[in-house]
Amino acid sequence: MNNEFQWIPFYGAFAKKILEYKDKRHELMEIMQQLHEEEPLLNYLNFDREDWWEPRGNEIDPFSIFATFNRQITDKNRIRLIKRYAEEFNINEEIPMEFNSIPVLNNLNSFYFNQDGILWDLFIEAMNFDENEGMSEEFQTLFDKSLSINGNGLSSITIGLYWIRPNVFISLDSRNVEFLAEQHKISFKAKDVDGEKYNELLQTLKIQIPNTSIPMISFQAWHYTKNRNSKVNYSTGLSVKDWVELLNDPKVFNQQSLEIMKRFKDYGGSASCSQLSNKYGETVNFYNRGSSALGKRIYDETHCNVYKENGKNRWWRILYTATDTVSENNEMQERDGTFVYKLRDELNEALNQVELSHIKLYADELDVQPSQNFWWINANPKIWSFSSINVGETIEYTLTTEHGGKRRIYQNFLDAKVGDLVICYESSPVKQVVALGKIVQENNGKNIVLEKTKNLLNPIDYSSLKESEELNQLEFFSNMNGTLFKVMPEEYDFIIELIDANNEKRANNEEVQEYSKIDFLDEVYLSEESYETLIALLLHKKNIILQGAPGVGKTFTAKRLAWSIMGKKDDTRIEMVQFHQNYSYEDFILGYKPKEDTFELQEGIFVRFCRLAANDPENDYFFIIDEINRANMSKVFGELLMLIENEYRDEKIVMPYSGKQFSVPNNLYIIGMMNTADRSLAMIDYALRRRFSFFEMEPAFDSEGFKQYQETLNNEQFNNVINQIKSLNFEIEAEATLGKGFCIGHSYFTGQSTYSEEWIRRIIKYDIVPMLNEYWFDENEKIGKWEKQFRGVFDE
């Protein structure tokens, strides 16, 4: 077996072990539940939620089990899980240390959706599949059924098949699809692939790419896309002398930045973020986002040339060249940590001229020195909050209280040394670990200085820590009124594991498809002029409401609008909610929620998403609100009504419940949808209305896109129905009590590849006529007239 693919024997053996549980699925579920209790990396499986597992028949499918160690986690954590599975299931194959050619799933989408055991049936059929006999009809049927389940996709299903039998099934992730099309002229549209076409593709590979295994094809695809991009002709304009001055400026190159530079230099000047993480410690984001933040500080200090892509500044390019490594959208991305970044020549030379011996080469938690300490520091959010300072900024802690007395556990302040690592905790009412830090100035007789090194997107609750046996002896729990507490190394390691398990989320998904303006105009029946207007309104105002009659495609348009701005279908940067009459400030912003026998202050979905966007300032994020006028808008938004305005983005206010500072980031856009035909809904009040632009969406029966759709159906009866609907809309628009906001939308009549009279009759009978009954509830003659005219179309 080629050493490039040393993972194949273990994956195959594990798949066979799982197959042994095909008739013992509840036993397998119990094993996974037990592992879930023991292993923080499996927390995302939510085994404690009955509402999650009841619809799944309280059983876990094989592909979701494989996904637990084929997600966007570090190789270290991946190997740790594999070792645990090998022990639990008595697998004797060698534990893989390399994972070449394996596609992984997004952490937010690393769970398959099973219905009636279909994924189990597909798994069993795949394991019994004989490639010499070809794909059975049963396999093709199960393949199609698996794709039809909401939440699954062609990429994820074929990735799962590749994991269990990599020499038989090919993964149709974006890299492989691109490679096959560009290098072997084997192209297809993902939406057209079903079981039959997938079978044909497997046969085509044998014919057109003979003597090449599927894992090798996948490996070649990775190399091809990695090396395809040409060198970008971009220079910062900074000389070696400029870089030396910057390296000696602590406002620009702080401790974290110098650690990143030293590790790049030690690795040979070029490395991937995952390679640095695996060798020297820290998370991938420590290097990824740390580099972007450093690039921004360099620009602020020097106003050097900066590389722009689609109007966005790519700060990390100030530090690294893009030679042979940049991804298509010019972002710092990795697939299994395999994109490599090379220090710019001038920066590399400058690093030879500065003293870095005092900078740690290995991350503290992986290279603990005998003299190093770990600390837990308390902040009272009613006085100040860790959220009020940015990563890289510092805060002073005096050795005495405001009254001149020594702080509690005074010796801890004397023992704190430069380089010590700190767990940053906010006390009541927050009661969460919210950040990480390090000591950058030790006791000078007056104070110590802490630098914030990391923001936690998902803070760790006090209750989660208190319930952990590993933290029973934590000094903080025995004397919670102090400020600085000692943390033992094993306690620190455990807390970091909890943090990693809860914050490996929303990573960029390598499998996302590109999405352009052309794709938008192909799917959404808007003119190019209307599209440009819509984009301009959203980018300028940052908040927009798509309003219109039922069926004009508001919801359909909203997500595609976001995709077209991002340039790809990256749902990890989109959050969608639906307002209703009972939707509250506590749901949306912040409030106390019951937890066991008490109440706990929890951030709402909008605040959490704002923090996610703030942690990734180089990318745009989109918050979509369906039925935006169903809720009491002023009540739901509360004090954030001001902060969502374009002019007040990034400005901080104090949250009333928590006392913490908060802002709405500049890279977050709000898209609302409003049904203008629902008489039961209140109009938006003026205070909120002036903070949004409003874009009227109208029925698109006369658009070029809909006309092309009509031509594909090529049916006279369908054309006659559409003509009747257009006449009906003309009458509705002329009604003084109705108007164009009550017209019938085109989306009722889309989504079909072939015409069926039964389908169109159902639409008229169960969608259109009931709507007319609501519009003209006391005008039976009008309703009867239109019912008769529709019947006339079918009787012709």
What's the topology here?
Blueprint: H1 8-19, H2 25-38, H3 50-53, H4 62-67, H5 75-89, H6 118-127, H7 137-148, H8 154-164, H9 174-184, H10 195-208, H11 214-227, H12 240-247, H13 255-266, E1 270-271, H14 273-280, H15 284-302, E2 308-309, E3 312-313, E4 320-321, E5 341-343, H16 345-351, E6 374-379, E7 394-398, H17 410-415, E8 421-426, E9 432-441, E10 447-461, H18 462-466, H19 475-478, E11 484-487, H20 489-503, H21 517-523, H22 528-541, E12 543-548, H23 554-566, E13 574-578, H24 585-588, E14 590-595, E15 598-603, H25 605-614, E16 621-626, H26 633-637, H27 640-643, E17 653-654, E18 661-662, E19 668-675, H28 686-689, E20 693-697, H29 704-713, H30 716-734, H31 757-775, H32 780-795
Helix pairs in contact: 6-7, 7-10, 9-11, 12-16, 14-15, 30-32, 31-32
Helical element count?
Answer: 32
Oligomer: single chain
As laid out across the biggest beta sheet, the strand order is: 7-10-9-8-6-11
- Taking all Cα atoms into account, the compactness measure Rg is 29 Å
Distance between the termini: 69 Å
Helix content: 40-55%
Annotation, overall tally of beta strands = 20
What sort of overall outline do the alpha carbons produce when their principal axes are compared? globular
Structural class by SSE content:
alpha/beta
The fraction of residues in strands falls at 5-15%
Mean pLDDT comes to 82
For the largest beta-sheet, the strand count, sense and barrel status come to: 6 strands, mixed
Unreliable runs: 228-232, 323-338, 365-370, 505-510
Please characterize this protein's 3D structure.
- The protein has 796 residues and is α/β, with parallel strands linked by helices.
- A six-stranded mixed beta sheet has the order 7-10-9-8-6-11. A five-stranded parallel beta sheet has the order 13-16-19-12-20. A three-stranded antiparallel beta sheet has the order 1-5-4.
- The chain is globular, with a radius of gyration of 29 Å.
- Residues 228-232, 323-338, 365-370 and 505-510 have low confidence and may be disordered.
